[in-house]
Structure formats: structure tokens, C-alpha cells
UniProtKB/TrEMBL annotation:
Coiled coil location: none
GO BP: proteolysis
Protein name, per record: Eupitrilysin (M16 family)
An example Gene Ontology molecular-function term: metal ion binding
Pfam families hit by this protein: M16C_assoc
Residue ranges annotated for the Peptidase M16C associated domain, each copy included: 10-75
């Protein structure tokens, strides 16, 4: 078997959402100060269309499905060349 292991520990950042909201607000105010009212209206229309598209349920029947037994237990060895850079 493969003796190599990797342990990753992730911890949530309690301030992330507040910081992200501040960054988003700053970006929006800076961006909106540079666009014309017509461009702003186009962005609003496109944003609404994108939001509606994202809310739709996607047809996942076209995606390939793998079962655990579809994946070989042994890794396929690939040739490689060592180089110094």
C-alpha cells in the first residue's frame, strides 16, 4: 500500500464574512462611480439573469458517474525524467 499520508486541518475565520462584505462594498462603490447609468442598468440586468440561471436545477444526468470499483486499486506508473532547474 501507499505509506504516504497528508493531514490537513482547516479552521474557519470568524471575521471572513464581515471582511468580505467590506471588500465587496468598497469594490461596488468604486466600480459604480466609474460607470454610466446605462452601463449600471446593463450590469443589473445581467446580474439578475445570472442569479436566475444559478437558481435553476441543473440536469446532471449527462455527467459521467464513477463507482469505487471503477478506479483501479494500484496506481499506474508514469515515466518521468529528473531535471535540475
Amino acid at each position: 500500500g501507499n505509506p504516504h499520508r497528508l493531514l490537513t486541518t482547516m479552521r474557519p475565520d470568524d471575521n471572513w464574512e464581515a471582511e468580505q462584505s467590506k471588500l465587496d462594498a468598497a469594490f461596488q462603490s468604486q466600480f459604480l462611480s466609474k460607470v454610466t447609468p446605462e452601463e449600471k442598468e446593463q450590469w443589473i440586468t445581467k446580474s439578475k439573469a445570472l442569479h436566475e440561471q444559478q437558481l435553476k436545477t441543473e440536469d446532471i444526468s449527462c455527467l459521467p458517474c464513477l463507482q469505487l470499483y471503477d478506479i483501479p486499486m494500484e496506481c499506474r506508473r508514469e515515466p518521468f525524467t529528473m531535471t535540475e532547474g
